[in-house]
Amino acid sequence: MPHVALFITCLTDQFYPHVGVAVTKILEHFGCRVSFPKAQTCCGQPFFNNGFQPEAKELAKKMIEVFEPFDYIVTPSGSCCAMVREHFPQLLDHDHAWEHGMQKLVHNTYEFVEFLDKVLKVDLSTLKLPNPETITYHYTCHLRGIGVKDEGVRMLQQIGNVDFKPMEKTDQCCGFGGTFAVKYPAISGAIVEDKTACIAATGAKTTICNDAGCTMNISGMCNRQGVDTKVKHIAELLAEAMGIGIESW
User: Fold this and answer.
1) 10-residue stretch averages of pLDDT, the chain, 249 residues long
2) pTM, whole model, 2 decimals?
3) How far apart are CA 210 and CA 187, in angstroms?
4) Structural domains of the chain, with CATH
5) With contact defined as beta carbons under 8 Å apart, do 156 and 190 qualify?
């Protein structure tokens, strides 16, 4: 039984805690023992993206202290997974005291869909949504950065009652980019307007997006533009197909 630590991430913890519940229950359904280390904090991505590397380095060390004991670290956020895998080696380069722990974290940290696909190798063909649902999918930038591409779509297409609608420019950025949206609001707004237009063109009532920041950005613009779609994490959809209740959390 794999022992998995849930790395919840800041935005999921604060705005989408039910996604963390769904991820936990789904991993348990597939035979994992899941722990939630209460000492976990931010991975340091906001510091890193804004040039505060010493501060980001301290948070990277904190991550290693908290998560090193576990077989796997699974997160519902592609961007935070990318921070660990792509940038922790850069932050802790030549810091020999932390090298072993850093390498272990880099090799054992997975985004949720990636973990289901590459480690657990799940078969979702027996699952079925309670009712037919039209669904489209946004490929987030950081997921592509860690090599996750079509896995989420392939999973969706295994599930009964899913009417998948491909999105034009599906791999185009939504314009969030963390503090990019704050520093360059006009550019960010134009990018997400284009994204919501592509979503609207599919007619899908559900849009799957597996990064909390992108979800906030896209759902906000969909609401302002009157686009009738619910933006969800794939874990929410899987929980629904499995009959797992998460809405009360």
Assistant:
1) 95 95 97 97 94 96 97 96 95 93 97 96 96 95 85 95 95 87 90 96 97 94 96 97 77
2) 0.94
3) 22
4) 3-119 (3.40.50), 128-242 (3.40.50)
5) no
